[in-house]
UniProtKB/TrEMBL annotation:
Pfam families: Glyco_transf_49. Residues 94-103 have a biased composition (Low complexity). The keyword Glycoprotein applies. Keywords: Glycoprotein, Membrane, Signal-anchor, Transmembrane, Transmembrane helix. InterPro entries: Xyl/GlcA_transferase (IPR051292). It comes from Absidia glauca. One of its GO terms (biological process) is protein O-linked glycosylation via mannose. It is a single-pass type II membrane protein. Coiled coil: none annotated. One of its GO terms (cellular component) is membrane. Residues 60-72 have a biased composition (Polar residues). The chain crosses the membrane at residues 142-163. This is Glycosyltransferase family 49 protein.
């Protein structure tokens, strides 16, 4: 074995033909990603460039790019800068396209027409190109950013409200005052928790509970809303007197509030609904409040006086005029009220009522009647004895309305011969006047007696009047019912005298003008029942 040390191998380049000439290109290995137009670089230039762009030592890289720990004092700056860069990239529509294009080869490897779509060749225009342009829009990205921020803050607000809210509703605090009944726009009321039947039975205390539970206010509601200072005509009808309502609408051009008394049958309700919708004037101006009853005829389950109160209660105006459906106004009463609005408002709000005289024909068998539409023409017919002044319970032309004074009257005049059976048609305030006594099946005089005892004056209109026409349906009250009604009314007279006398005395009005009617009308009653308790009897 020889001890000679082998000579080192000469170091060679892998390429056997590396030329140091700048113009030699043969047998030179080229990188696959280089362009077709390259120029050779001198060796000394290469060395200079390597020196210039030499990377920093690893230690310097590690020191500058070290990620801050959570305990670092500048960690919040790092996350803030990171968030800032993310927001900038969100609104920079060219960043995504530039970053993706920089990673692709700059020169084609094959002729362009030989490329496939996957390798950058020609492709058909995409039908969804506008969606991509919309997604790259800075405005769209900005709006999306605002939406996200708004959603976050809204969620935080609801979460905070839920966490800090009390377990008990604030509406039931110490300062809570129940205020509302049916008006949905006002404060919550304890009446919301009451059943419909309970509320209606309290309103109509003399009626049967099951019957009041079936009452439906505004069962059919008018399409027009009247002015509050208008007059609502208030009446009660049945399916058999529907034709009287249609006739009444032709003569009365104002709002009408109707209580419809009927039994609960699908056929009857369907027929009424169709007739209501088929008449444009009725559907425009008439509110119908349904009063269903197990018995089709009038009964103590829901008296007619209670139905009058129902129609008055849900009238949409400040003033009402209650009347039977077989009477029609032949003069423009609404115009009279509008012309004398200031004077009439003062009277009605003070508790007075305006009496509308009623005239009728001596024979109610004819089917054709020539109605007078002016006071002179009416007086001609009265002089010919073809029409008469009608006050129920009195003979023609002899009632408290006083025909002789009405003939010559040119202004309002008071009723001087009032009697507790007097029941004229009156215009009254919806809210000031007492309600009809519901113990009676059908007694309009009971509705007005309380108004008179509380000091209300009855003023007769000098130029307006009603005309009574034959009834489509006769009264269903039996002779026995009439006897009971009369006996109840006699007791009612005494009771109302004592009740209102005590009320006026409690108000300190017993010695004033307000108590003049009750002291005159109830003198004997007060002497027997109220001696020593109610002032000094007359």
């Amino acid at each position: 074995m020889s001890d000679a040390i082998p000579s080192p191998r000469p170091q060679h380049s892998r390429s056997s033909s590396i030329s140091k000439s700048a113009r030699t290109h043969s047998h030179q290995r080229k990188p696959s990603n280089s362009t077709n137009h390259l120029y050779a670089i001198q060796e000394n230039q290469k060395a200079d460039m390597m020196d210039t762009f030499s990377p920093p030592p690893p230690t310097s890289i590690n020191s500058t790019m070290k990620k801050p720990t959570p305990r670092s004092s500048s960690s919040w700056r790092y996350y803030l800068n990171l968030f800032h860069r993310q927001v900038d990239s969100l609104f920079d529509s060219s960043s995504s396209s530039s970053s993706s294009s920089s990673s692709l080869p700059t020169g084609p490897l094959l002729p362009q027409d030989k490329h496939t779509t996957a390798f950058g060749g020609p492709a058909k225009p995409s039908s969804r190109g506008w969606l991509g342009a919309l997604a790259r829009s800075t405005i769209v990205r900005f709006l999306l950013f605002l939406y996200v921020v708004f959603s976050i803050f809204l969620s935080l607000h609801h979460l905070w409200t839920w966490l800090t809210s009390e377990s008990v509703d604030a509406r039931f605090g110490d300062g809570w005052i129940p205020q509302r009944t049916y008006d949905q726009d006002k404060t919550y009321s304890v009446m919301d928790d009451m059943t419909h039947g309970l509320k209606m039975s309290k309103m109509f205390t003399k009626a049967n509970y099951d019957t009041t539970d079936s009452i439906q206010p505004f069962w059919l509601k008018a399409s027009e809303t009247p002015a509050t200072d208008d007059i609502s005509l208030v009446t009660v009808i049945t399916p058999g007197t529907w034709s009287e309502l249609e006739r009444l609408v032709d003569y009365w051009k104002g709002p009408i509030s109707v209580a419809l008394h009927m039994d609960h049958t699908v056929e009857s309700m369907t027929a009424i609904t169709q007739q209501y919708n088929s008449n444009a004037e009725i559907s425009k101006r008439v509110d119908i409040h349904l009063s269903e009853s197990a018995r089709p005829n009038l009964s103590v389950l829901l008296p007619r006086n209670a139905e009058r109160n129902l129609a008055r209660l849900f009238a949409q105006t400040d003033y009402v005029m209650e009347m039977p459906s077989n009477k029609v106004p032949t003069t423009d009463i609404r115009r009279t009220l509008e012309t004398n609005k200031e004077m009439f408002d003062a009277l009605l709000r003070a508790g007075d009522v305006l009496v509308v005289p009623t005239f009728g024909f001596p024979e109610q068998e004819s089917t054709l009647y020539k109605l007078p539409f002016s006071k002179p023409r009416l007086l001609e017919l009265v002089g010919e004895n073809t029409m008469f002044l009608l006050d129920k319970h009195w003979k023609p032309n002899t009632g408290p309305t006083d025909l002789d004074e009405w003939k010559v009257a040119s202004t309002l005049y008071p009723v001087k011969r009032y009697d507790f059976h007097y029941e004229p048609i009156v215009i009254e305030s919806k809210s000031v006047q007492p309600w009809c006594a519901e113990r009676f099946l059908d007694s309009r005089s009971a509705c007005l007696f309380s108004s008179y005892l509380t000091g209300g004056e009855f003023w007769v209109l000098p130029d307006d009047y009603m005309v009574e026409l034959p009834e489509t349906e006769k009264s269903t009250l039996s002779a026995f019912d009439n006897v009971i009604e009369n006996r109840l009314y006699a007791k009612f007279y005494w009771e109302q005298c004592v009740h209102h006398a005590r009320q006026l005395d409690a108000l300190g009005l017993w010695k004033g003008k307000r108590s003049q009617h009750i002291r005159t009308q109830c003198s004997r009653v007060i002497q027997n029942w109220g001696k020593g308790l109610i002032g000094k009897p007359e």
